[in-house]
Amino acid sequence: RPAHLGMAAMAGMRAQARRLSSRRSVNPMVVGEQTTPRVHERPANVAELTRHLATLRERHAGAVFERYLDKVPKVAPDALVCAGAAVIGDVTLGEGSSVWYNAVLRGDMNRIVVGAHSNIQDGTVVHLGDQDPTIIGEHVVVGHRAVLHGCTIEDHCLIGMQATVLDGAVVGRGSIVGAGAIVSAGTVIPPLSLVLGVPAKVKKSLEPDKEEHHRLLAEKYARLAHNYRCG
């Protein structure tokens, strides 16, 4: 009987985990010319934009900064962008954030926001959908070679190495997306969830202290970035 009760409890937990994640409608991909019309001249303020880019390139030697039309990156004075990283167009990097070697953040058809003290680790790609910006909250850790595409990552999350989060998905505050997981378009992950697999599913709820652990890990990376800038 105790074994029977244990199996029933486990089945109930699995059923609850399946119910935890939900889906929302996904914005359709727009492919007609109306979504990306051709331009026929440079912005009127191109000289000002070019000066702004030159300042960023001087501050972050070896990094690639480019405009898209009249959109240029906005980088906090104490943010770090490593050599080989590319930050293009409508991208905002918050206080104490860091973008590591060979990461690409391409803000052309929409915008990218990286919150304070978040880090985008080596080889990560951040892009977006026509109607879906990529919004990364504060104290978020994005592991090596992850792909974030038109999604929202709330504060204090950990995105594992080579994980993928697709258009319209929302990863709730304090959650973990495990290494190699693929979060399908439109998936809504509740706060404090452990998400694993392909396609990714909620495996369990995390204890509240995990959120603080993720914040401290992000602060560790912020200190590391400071040392790269100032040491």
Order of helices and strands: HEHEEEEEEEEEEEEEEEEEEEEH
Helix content: 10-25%
Fraction in beta strands: 25-35%
Number of helices: 3
Mean pLDDT, nearest integer? Answer: 91
End-to-end Cα distance, whole Å, is 63 Å
User: Main β-sheet, in a few words?
Assistant: 13 strands, mixed
SSE-based structural type: alpha/beta
Radius of gyration: 19 Å
List how many beta strands DSSP finds: 21
Instruction: Outline the low-pLDDT stretches.
Output: 1-5
The backbone outline, from C-alpha atoms, is flat
What does this entry look like structurally?
The protein has 231 residues and is an alpha/beta fold. The chain contains three helices and 21 strands. The protein has helices spanning 2-20, 46-59, 209-230; strands spanning 22-23, 64-66, 74-75, 80-81, 86-93, 98-99, 104-114, 119-120, 125-127, 134-136, 141-142, 147-149, 152-153, 158-159, 164-165, 170-171, 176-177, 182-183, 187-189, 193-196, 201-205. The protein is flat and about 55 Å long. The N and C termini lie far apart (63 Å). The model is unreliable at 1-5 (pLDDT under 50).
